[in-house]
Amino acid sequence: MTREQWREFVSVGTRTGKLATVRADGRAHVAPVWFVLDGEDVVFNTGAQTVKGRALRRTGTASMCVDDERPPFSFVTLGGPVRVSEDLAQVRLWATRIAARYMGAEQAQRYGLRNGVPGELLVRLTPTSVVAVRDVAD
Questions:
Q1: Mind listing the pLDDT tens digit for each residue in 41-77?
Q2: Domain residues for 119?
Q3: HSE of 13, CA atoms in CB hemisphere, 13 A
Q4: What is the Cα–Cα distance from 13 to 30, expressed in whole angstroms?
Q5: What are the pLDDT digits (tens) for 118-136?
Q6: Alpha-carbon torsion 105, 107, 110, 115, what sign?
């Protein structure tokens, strides 16, 4: 896929990102996250005390896979450094924007207030590695 194609692919509908991080003991950790694109960044929220939140702060890096599970199957993997912020105004702003994608505009504010609270992080993953494959089974 071209840059434009993979950006469209990861932005369509409500596909979740499967975020991969590394635990302190070296074991892999994968969890689904809601996300949006902002310029070059993949933006998402997570709790500061979750496995993801602790790993992101410790390592400063992550990978994400977004896939279409329907034949002929497609996927995009993104990896790179992350920037983490606890700025509550930014956490709430982006939690609301992300909620609009996944829950719809009419519920965005409610979910933004629910997810944009102290103890939540705003995370920006800047992809330095992208693998984007369309129609794997063709």
A1: 999 999 999 999 999 999 999 999 999 999 999 999 9
A2: 3-133
A3: 8
A4: 21
A5: 999 999 999 999 999 999 9
A6: negative
Residue 72 sits in a domain whose CATH number is: 2.30.110.10
Residue 138 lies in a domain: no
- Token code pair at residue 101: 């994608």
Residue 38's identity, in one-letter code, is: D
Q: Which residues of 99-135 are buried (b: 16+ CB within 10 A; e: fewer)?
A: bbbbeeeeebeebbeebbeeebbbbbbebeeeebeee
pLDDT at 131: 98
Domain count, the chain: 1
Predicted model pTM: 0.95
For residues 108 and 11, what is the distance between their CA atoms, to the nearest angstrom?
Answer: 17
